[in-house]
Amino acid sequence: MIKNLLTGILFAMLWASASSATKIGIQSAQPLVIGNFRFFIAGFLMLGYSYLFQKNRLPKGVEWKQLVIYGVLNVTIYLGFFVIAIKHVSAGIGSLASATNPLIISILSAFWLGRSVKKTEILGLILGITGVGIATYPLLKNSFADVEGLIMLSISMISYSVGTVYYAGQKWDLPLLVINGWQVLLGGILLVPMTLFFTDWTNNTYDLRFWGSIFWLVIPVSIGAVQLWLYLLKKDPIKASLWLFLCPIFGFIYASFLLQEPITLYTYIGTSLVIVGLYLAQREKFK
Protein backbone atom coordinates (compact mmCIF):
# COMPACT_ATOMS: atom_id res chain seq x y z
CA MET A 1 0.00 0.00 0.00
CA ILE A 2 2.75 2.44 1.02
CA LYS A 3 4.79 1.44 -2.04
CA ASN A 4 1.88 2.19 -4.39
CA LEU A 5 1.22 5.49 -2.58
CA LEU A 6 4.82 6.68 -2.92
CA THR A 7 4.98 5.42 -6.51
CA GLY A 8 1.85 7.39 -7.42
CA ILE A 9 3.04 10.63 -5.80
CA LEU A 10 6.49 10.36 -7.39
CA PHE A 11 4.89 9.68 -10.78
CA ALA A 12 2.69 12.80 -10.48
CA MET A 13 5.64 14.97 -9.42
CA LEU A 14 7.81 13.83 -12.35
CA TRP A 15 5.05 13.76 -14.97
CA ALA A 16 3.88 17.27 -14.07
CA SER A 17 7.39 18.62 -14.62
CA ALA A 18 7.28 17.81 -18.36
CA SER A 19 5.33 20.96 -19.23
CA SER A 20 7.80 23.31 -17.55
CA ALA A 21 10.83 21.42 -18.88
CA THR A 22 9.42 21.61 -22.41
CA LYS A 23 8.57 25.30 -22.01
CA ILE A 24 12.17 25.99 -20.98
CA GLY A 25 13.53 23.95 -23.89
CA ILE A 26 11.49 25.71 -26.59
CA GLN A 27 13.25 28.95 -25.68
CA SER A 28 16.26 27.45 -27.47
CA ALA A 29 14.79 25.07 -30.07
CA GLN A 30 11.58 24.26 -31.86
CA PRO A 31 9.09 21.90 -30.18
CA LEU A 32 9.30 18.89 -32.51
CA VAL A 33 13.11 18.98 -32.45
CA ILE A 34 12.97 18.71 -28.66
CA GLY A 35 10.45 15.89 -28.98
CA ASN A 36 12.53 13.82 -31.39
CA PHE A 37 15.76 14.27 -29.42
CA ARG A 38 13.89 13.19 -26.31
CA PHE A 39 12.29 10.11 -27.86
CA PHE A 40 15.37 8.80 -29.64
CA ILE A 41 17.70 9.22 -26.67
CA ALA A 42 15.19 7.74 -24.21
CA GLY A 43 14.35 4.83 -26.53
CA PHE A 44 17.96 3.89 -27.21
CA LEU A 45 18.90 4.17 -23.52
CA MET A 46 16.06 1.92 -22.37
CA LEU A 47 16.48 -0.66 -25.12
CA GLY A 48 20.26 -0.65 -24.77
CA TYR A 49 20.02 -1.36 -21.05
CA SER A 50 17.27 -3.91 -21.59
CA TYR A 51 19.15 -5.97 -24.20
CA LEU A 52 22.75 -5.51 -23.05
CA PHE A 53 22.26 -5.98 -19.30
CA GLN A 54 18.87 -7.64 -18.80
CA LYS A 55 19.17 -9.92 -21.86
CA ASN A 56 15.49 -9.51 -22.76
CA ARG A 57 14.08 -10.90 -25.98
CA LEU A 58 12.96 -8.93 -29.02
CA PRO A 59 9.24 -8.42 -29.68
CA LYS A 60 7.70 -10.88 -32.09
CA GLY A 61 4.59 -11.31 -34.20
CA VAL A 62 1.58 -9.34 -33.00
CA GLU A 63 3.72 -7.63 -30.34
CA TRP A 64 5.19 -5.34 -33.02
CA LYS A 65 1.68 -4.25 -34.01
CA GLN A 66 0.79 -3.57 -30.38
CA LEU A 67 3.95 -1.50 -29.87
CA VAL A 68 3.42 0.53 -33.04
CA ILE A 69 -0.20 1.34 -32.18
CA TYR A 70 0.71 2.25 -28.60
CA GLY A 71 3.69 4.29 -29.80
CA VAL A 72 1.55 6.26 -32.28
CA LEU A 73 -1.09 7.05 -29.65
CA ASN A 74 1.22 7.62 -26.68
CA VAL A 75 4.17 9.32 -28.40
CA THR A 76 3.63 10.39 -32.02
CA ILE A 77 0.22 12.01 -31.55
CA TYR A 78 0.09 12.66 -27.81
CA LEU A 79 3.58 14.02 -27.19
CA GLY A 80 3.98 15.36 -30.73
CA PHE A 81 0.95 17.62 -30.34
CA PHE A 82 1.76 18.30 -26.69
CA VAL A 83 5.20 19.80 -27.35
CA ILE A 84 3.73 22.01 -30.07
CA ALA A 85 0.83 23.04 -27.82
CA ILE A 86 3.20 24.07 -25.01
CA LYS A 87 4.58 26.76 -27.33
CA HIS A 88 1.10 28.27 -27.37
CA VAL A 89 -0.13 27.69 -23.81
CA SER A 90 1.33 28.06 -20.33
CA ALA A 91 3.07 25.14 -18.65
CA GLY A 92 0.48 25.23 -15.88
CA ILE A 93 -2.39 24.79 -18.34
CA GLY A 94 -0.53 21.87 -19.90
CA SER A 95 -0.44 20.15 -16.53
CA LEU A 96 -4.06 21.02 -15.76
CA ALA A 97 -5.20 19.58 -19.08
CA SER A 98 -3.37 16.34 -18.25
CA ALA A 99 -5.58 16.00 -15.18
CA THR A 100 -8.66 15.61 -17.42
CA ASN A 101 -7.26 12.35 -18.79
CA PRO A 102 -8.81 10.16 -16.06
CA LEU A 103 -12.23 11.56 -17.00
CA ILE A 104 -11.72 10.77 -20.67
CA ILE A 105 -10.20 7.38 -19.82
CA SER A 106 -13.19 6.51 -17.64
CA ILE A 107 -15.70 7.24 -20.43
CA LEU A 108 -13.59 5.54 -23.12
CA SER A 109 -13.23 2.48 -20.87
CA ALA A 110 -17.01 2.31 -20.58
CA PHE A 111 -17.40 2.14 -24.36
CA TRP A 112 -14.45 -0.28 -24.64
CA LEU A 113 -15.97 -2.65 -22.03
CA GLY A 114 -19.51 -2.21 -23.34
CA ARG A 115 -20.96 -0.76 -20.12
CA SER A 116 -23.22 2.27 -19.83
CA VAL A 117 -21.64 5.63 -19.06
CA LYS A 118 -22.59 6.85 -15.59
CA LYS A 119 -24.13 10.28 -15.07
CA THR A 120 -21.38 11.10 -12.57
CA GLU A 121 -18.76 10.38 -15.23
CA ILE A 122 -20.43 12.76 -17.68
CA LEU A 123 -20.82 15.39 -14.95
CA GLY A 124 -17.17 14.91 -13.96
CA LEU A 125 -16.02 15.43 -17.55
CA ILE A 126 -18.14 18.58 -17.89
CA LEU A 127 -16.70 19.98 -14.64
CA GLY A 128 -13.17 19.07 -15.75
CA ILE A 129 -13.50 20.82 -19.11
CA THR A 130 -15.16 23.82 -17.43
CA GLY A 131 -12.32 23.98 -14.90
CA VAL A 132 -9.69 24.05 -17.63
CA GLY A 133 -11.67 26.76 -19.40
CA ILE A 134 -11.90 28.94 -16.29
CA ALA A 135 -8.20 28.55 -15.48
CA THR A 136 -7.33 29.38 -19.09
CA TYR A 137 -9.58 32.47 -19.44
CA PRO A 138 -7.23 35.13 -17.99
CA LEU A 139 -4.25 33.53 -19.74
CA LEU A 140 -5.94 33.99 -23.14
CA LYS A 141 -6.16 37.72 -22.46
CA ASN A 142 -2.54 37.95 -21.30
CA SER A 143 -1.01 35.95 -24.19
CA PHE A 144 -0.14 32.96 -21.98
CA ALA A 145 -2.43 30.79 -24.14
CA ASP A 146 -4.25 30.85 -27.48
CA VAL A 147 -7.06 28.87 -29.11
CA GLU A 148 -4.72 27.06 -31.51
CA GLY A 149 -2.69 25.75 -28.59
CA LEU A 150 -5.79 24.61 -26.71
CA ILE A 151 -7.04 22.67 -29.75
CA MET A 152 -3.70 20.88 -30.12
CA LEU A 153 -3.65 20.21 -26.38
CA SER A 154 -7.13 18.66 -26.63
CA ILE A 155 -6.05 16.35 -29.46
CA SER A 156 -3.03 15.41 -27.38
CA MET A 157 -5.11 14.53 -24.29
CA ILE A 158 -7.61 12.44 -26.27
CA SER A 159 -4.80 10.46 -27.91
CA TYR A 160 -3.17 9.82 -24.53
CA SER A 161 -6.45 8.56 -23.08
CA VAL A 162 -7.10 6.28 -26.05
CA GLY A 163 -3.55 4.98 -25.71
CA THR A 164 -4.06 4.20 -22.02
CA VAL A 165 -7.28 2.30 -22.68
CA TYR A 166 -5.60 0.43 -25.55
CA TYR A 167 -2.58 -0.48 -23.40
CA ALA A 168 -4.75 -1.74 -20.54
CA GLY A 169 -6.82 -3.86 -22.93
CA GLN A 170 -3.87 -5.75 -24.43
CA LYS A 171 -2.09 -8.85 -23.19
CA TRP A 172 1.58 -7.98 -22.78
CA ASP A 173 4.30 -10.62 -22.33
CA LEU A 174 7.20 -8.17 -22.61
CA PRO A 175 8.92 -6.49 -19.63
CA LEU A 176 7.86 -2.91 -18.90
CA LEU A 177 11.26 -1.51 -19.89
CA VAL A 178 11.09 -3.20 -23.31
CA ILE A 179 7.53 -1.96 -23.89
CA ASN A 180 8.45 1.57 -22.87
CA GLY A 181 11.67 1.59 -24.90
CA TRP A 182 10.08 0.37 -28.12
CA GLN A 183 6.93 2.50 -27.90
CA VAL A 184 9.05 5.63 -27.37
CA LEU A 185 11.49 4.77 -30.16
CA LEU A 186 8.82 3.70 -32.68
CA GLY A 187 6.68 6.71 -31.80
CA GLY A 188 9.69 8.97 -32.31
CA ILE A 189 10.51 7.40 -35.69
CA LEU A 190 6.95 7.95 -36.88
CA LEU A 191 7.17 11.58 -35.75
CA VAL A 192 10.24 12.26 -37.94
CA PRO A 193 8.32 13.12 -41.17
CA MET A 194 6.25 15.71 -39.27
CA THR A 195 9.42 17.14 -37.70
CA LEU A 196 11.22 17.42 -41.06
CA PHE A 197 8.22 19.09 -42.69
CA PHE A 198 7.48 21.71 -40.01
CA THR A 199 10.94 22.54 -38.65
CA ASP A 200 13.11 25.50 -39.59
CA TRP A 201 16.50 24.14 -38.52
CA THR A 202 18.14 27.58 -38.49
CA ASN A 203 16.05 28.55 -35.44
CA ASN A 204 17.58 25.98 -33.08
CA THR A 205 20.31 26.71 -30.55
CA TYR A 206 21.83 23.64 -28.91
CA ASP A 207 22.89 25.39 -25.73
CA LEU A 208 22.91 24.37 -22.05
CA ARG A 209 19.23 25.23 -21.69
CA PHE A 210 18.36 22.93 -24.61
CA TRP A 211 20.39 19.98 -23.31
CA GLY A 212 19.21 20.53 -19.73
CA SER A 213 15.61 20.34 -20.95
CA ILE A 214 16.35 17.20 -22.99
CA PHE A 215 18.09 15.54 -20.03
CA TRP A 216 15.14 16.16 -17.74
CA LEU A 217 12.57 15.04 -20.31
CA VAL A 218 14.55 11.86 -21.03
CA ILE A 219 15.64 10.62 -17.58
CA PRO A 220 13.06 11.70 -14.97
CA VAL A 221 10.08 11.95 -17.37
CA SER A 222 10.33 9.55 -20.36
CA ILE A 223 12.16 6.84 -18.41
CA GLY A 224 11.33 7.46 -14.75
CA ALA A 225 7.73 8.68 -14.90
CA VAL A 226 6.65 6.38 -17.73
CA GLN A 227 8.11 3.31 -15.98
CA LEU A 228 6.15 4.29 -12.87
CA TRP A 229 3.02 4.86 -14.98
CA LEU A 230 3.26 1.45 -16.65
CA TYR A 231 3.78 -0.13 -13.23
CA LEU A 232 0.65 1.61 -11.90
CA LEU A 233 -1.33 0.62 -15.00
CA LYS A 234 -0.30 -3.00 -14.53
CA LYS A 235 -1.56 -2.90 -10.94
CA ASP A 236 -4.88 -1.22 -11.75
CA PRO A 237 -5.52 0.96 -14.85
CA ILE A 238 -8.45 2.84 -13.27
CA LYS A 239 -6.76 3.59 -9.95
CA ALA A 240 -3.59 4.53 -11.84
CA SER A 241 -5.44 7.30 -13.62
CA LEU A 242 -6.38 8.86 -10.28
CA TRP A 243 -2.78 9.93 -9.71
CA LEU A 244 -3.08 12.30 -12.66
CA PHE A 245 -5.27 14.60 -10.57
CA LEU A 246 -2.16 15.64 -8.62
CA CYS A 247 -0.43 16.79 -11.81
CA PRO A 248 -2.01 20.27 -12.03
CA ILE A 249 -1.05 21.03 -8.43
CA PHE A 250 2.60 20.20 -9.02
CA GLY A 251 2.44 21.68 -12.52
CA PHE A 252 1.30 25.13 -11.38
CA ILE A 253 3.93 25.14 -8.61
CA TYR A 254 6.71 24.37 -11.13
CA ALA A 255 5.36 26.92 -13.63
CA SER A 256 5.15 29.64 -11.00
CA PHE A 257 8.64 29.13 -9.56
CA LEU A 258 10.52 28.28 -12.76
CA LEU A 259 8.68 30.35 -15.37
CA GLN A 260 6.99 33.07 -13.31
CA GLU A 261 3.62 32.14 -14.80
CA PRO A 262 0.71 33.80 -12.96
CA ILE A 263 -1.44 31.92 -10.45
CA THR A 264 -4.76 33.73 -10.08
CA LEU A 265 -8.16 33.17 -8.50
CA TYR A 266 -9.19 31.65 -11.84
CA THR A 267 -6.38 29.11 -11.43
CA TYR A 268 -7.63 28.01 -8.01
CA ILE A 269 -11.27 27.83 -9.12
CA GLY A 270 -10.44 25.96 -12.34
CA THR A 271 -8.15 23.47 -10.62
CA SER A 272 -10.75 22.88 -7.89
CA LEU A 273 -13.44 22.13 -10.49
CA VAL A 274 -11.13 19.65 -12.25
CA ILE A 275 -10.40 17.84 -8.98
CA VAL A 276 -14.10 17.80 -7.98
CA GLY A 277 -14.92 16.44 -11.43
CA LEU A 278 -12.34 13.70 -11.00
CA TYR A 279 -13.77 12.76 -7.61
CA LEU A 280 -17.38 12.65 -8.85
CA ALA A 281 -16.49 10.59 -11.91
CA GLN A 282 -14.44 8.04 -10.01
CA ARG A 283 -15.49 8.28 -6.37
CA GLU A 284 -16.24 4.57 -6.27
CA LYS A 285 -12.55 3.92 -7.01
CA PHE A 286 -11.56 5.93 -3.94
CA LYS A 287 -13.52 3.47 -1.82
Task: Characterise the protein shown here.
With 287 residues, the chain is mainly α. It has one domain (2-286). The protein has helices spanning 2-25, 31-52, 62-85, 91-98, 101-113, 119-141, 147-168, 176-198, 208-235, 237-242, 247-259, 265-286. The longest helix is centred in the last third of the chain and has 28 residues, at 208-235. The model has no long low-confidence stretch (mean pLDDT 85).
What's the short story on this structure?
With 287 residues, the chain is mostly helical.
Any idea how many domains?
1
How many strand elements? 0
The helix content, as a percent range, equals: over 70%
- Overall body shape: globular
State the secondary-structure class. mainly alpha
How would you characterize the largest beta sheet? none
Tell me the layout of helices and strands.
Elements: H1 2-25, H2 31-52, H3 62-85, H4 91-98, H5 101-113, H6 119-141, H7 147-168, H8 176-198, H9 208-235, H10 237-242, H11 247-259, H12 265-286
Helix pairs in contact: 1-4, 1-9, 1-11, 2-3, 2-8, 2-9, 3-7, 3-8, 4-11, 5-6, 5-7, 6-12, 8-9
Key descriptive features of the protein:
single chain; 287 residues; mainly alpha; 12 helices; 79% helix; 0% strand; globular
